């Protein structure tokens, strides 16, 4: 492999400059501002600002609504991750068994990923709408009353389904690629030895898919904690009774609606630390079980 040597030492930095500028402007600078504002208390107009130290963080731990958002976020993140990855794996296995029509099915299953989160939320809001929705009408025929506007459990079910549906296509692509990378000779040898489909899946397919599964686990947890804001906003707006008020939505609501900038900044810092901690735990402990 031929090695390229730049004659001008400034050229590599110039090539990296656009990406470095984007990273600084849209990631590092906002994060630094959030950390700074988490130690301040200011009015809604930003005129009077005072340093309060850790008072914003102490107020969070004494707030029942914030502690409830932690619980709701944990339930929501686990549910979305399990549902989206489980459904994607089942679809990937089904497509992997089809030799001639793999590409058309793959194309159709990937399309939902192109849908914006807000559009996905509105789509499922219409489907589950108690007044005009198709599914509530069908469920009413079987004696089940659906009204996510007043039922916290049904509201959580709605946002989990809408968020997971949006992510299934992304997971599906990686699972299909992972399944196609597994040598067919290994599964054929296991079948010759008398292993059934279930045994082959758990003893061969699933262990060899562990790198893909680990990667998707990290991505889906981050997705459920950050990128599902638009789904929540388009469907339930955190209700009813704070049942779907996940942490990222509470950051927005307290900061932009309630104009409590200090508390909103403190919440964003806590959310960032939680995601960093989960990622470190996954790479430090979960990755040890991954077979490369």
UniProtKB/TrEMBL annotation:
Keywords: Cell inner membrane, Cell membrane, Membrane, Transmembrane, Transmembrane helix, Transport. SUPFAM superfamilies: MetI-like. The complex is composed of two ATP-binding proteins (UgpC), two transmembrane proteins (UgpA and UgpE) and a solute-binding protein (UgpB). It holds the Pfam family BPD_transp_1. Part of the ABC transporter complex UgpBAEC involved in sn-glycerol-3-phosphate (G3P) import. Probably responsible for the translocation of the substrate across the membrane. This is sn-glycerol-3-phosphate transport system permease protein UgpA. PROSITE patterns: ABC_TM1. Belongs to the binding-protein-dependent transport system permease family. It comes from the Bacteria. It is a multi-pass membrane protein. The chain crosses the membrane at residues 72-95, 107-127, 206-226, 265-286. The gene is ugpA. InterPro entries: MetI-like, MetI-like_sf, UgpAE/MalFG_permease. It is found in: Cell inner membrane; Cell membrane. Residues 70-282 form the ABC transmembrane type-1 domain.
